[in-house]
Amino acid sequence: MTPLAAELADDVLERLLRYVRIDTQSKAGVATSPSTEKQLDLSRLLRDELEEIGLDDVRLDEHGYVYGSLEGAESAPAIGLIAHVDTSPDVTGTGVDPQVHRGYDGGRIELRGDTSVVLDPEELPLLKGKVGHDLVTTDGTTLLGADDKAGVAEIMAAVAYLKRNPGVPHAPIRVCFTVDEEVAGGAEHLDLERFGAKFAYTLDGAAPGEIEAETFNAAKVVVTIRGRSTHTGTAKGQLVNAIKLAADFVASLPRDSLSPETTEEREGFVHPTKISGGAEETSVELIVRDHDLAKMAEHVELLRRLAAEVRERDPRASVDVVEEDQYRNMYEVISRHPEVIEAADEAVRRVGLEPVHTIIRGGTDGARLSARGLPTPNLFTGGSEYHSRREWASVQDMAAAAATIVELARVWA
Ligand SMILES: [Zn+2]
């Protein structure tokens, strides 16, 4: 650890332990923002803490977003720092009881609330490398919420440090804590004009040194098959069962390739997420992902072709394919501002780490913000095994992330 990271470690840990105890689980399919009232419990606390630290223009807006700003060198551009307060709907976030394991010995960690949940270094290669670190885990009954409360804690600790040390030259900083990132509503209501940053960084990544500037392109496709339902007693030659045609369609999807369970790195996929309906009408919902936009269009084309084949099988059926854009690979925007990545590289090096450029097999708030004109790569937080009861975070890595933020603000000054 650098002296700066060592100085920030206790503050980051204390904040993480305080924030994860607050249940902020978001909910999919809710039209209001925030999707759950309880996210505001953390938003309110963060507003109060930002005020206590002494940031300017601190406010909590009607959607649960918390803003604050810290003035800095006038010649430098304002940089945004963003993290989300909500946790995944996948695993409960009620009653999180974080456990701190000092000086990890490299062995299996049994969690005391549910001893069937074990962190086994043989299964978790990242954990294997953390011998000697102080680790934070769950008690085995909930997720931890380091995604993204580690990011929140790191931003808070970094701005508190800069405020405490007015002698450290740094760029002006704009902080925003968002809601509903886990249910794809994240950053939608971020008021870019009032935010006032030229570019931003989300603190929502994982392994130390990681800088992510590439996401998937993403679309949703709904294939609706309409059959013809009749009384089954007199159905001969009449009935066209939409369920059977939908099953044919699903069976025709590629399996050994183009599926999340058989692809990695830069390979895209089509993935059925939901099937619903009856004999008269059945819908299959799919998501389509690829880092390459042209390839994603090909995958959508494949789905149209397979859907058309179903219809050819029984021309009395009708098949309808609707495509909806979800988000774009943010590299398209970020690559036009290489200095945003270069500054992150330099900041990471200053905390004694090697920058690692990884691609995201998913989206981030940054993808949506980049599409709206605010280039926003994603930085590491030091957490791991997100959205699970085996989620854990390293105090040393979180401290390095907080130090990276401070260094980033200095690089830009
Ligand atoms: Zn996250």
Describe the structure.
The chain is α+β, with helices and mostly antiparallel strands and 413 residues long. The protein contains eleven helices and 18 strands. It has helices spanning 3-20, 39-53, 125-128, 146-164, 192-195, 242-251, 293-313, 331-334, 338-350, 365-371, 395-412; strands at residues 56-60, 66-70, 79-84, 99-101, 109-110, 118-119, 135-137, 173-178, 199-203, 210-214, 217-226, 269-277, 281-290, 318-327, 356-359, 378-379, 383-384, 392-394. It has an eight-stranded mixed beta sheet, with helices on both faces. The chain has a four-stranded antiparallel beta sheet with strand order 4-7-18-17. A four-stranded antiparallel beta sheet has the order 12-13-11-14. A hairpin with a 5-residue loop joins β1 (56-60) and β2 (66-70). The mean pLDDT is 96. The structure holds zinc ion. Zinc ion is lined by residues 84, 147-148, 181, 204.
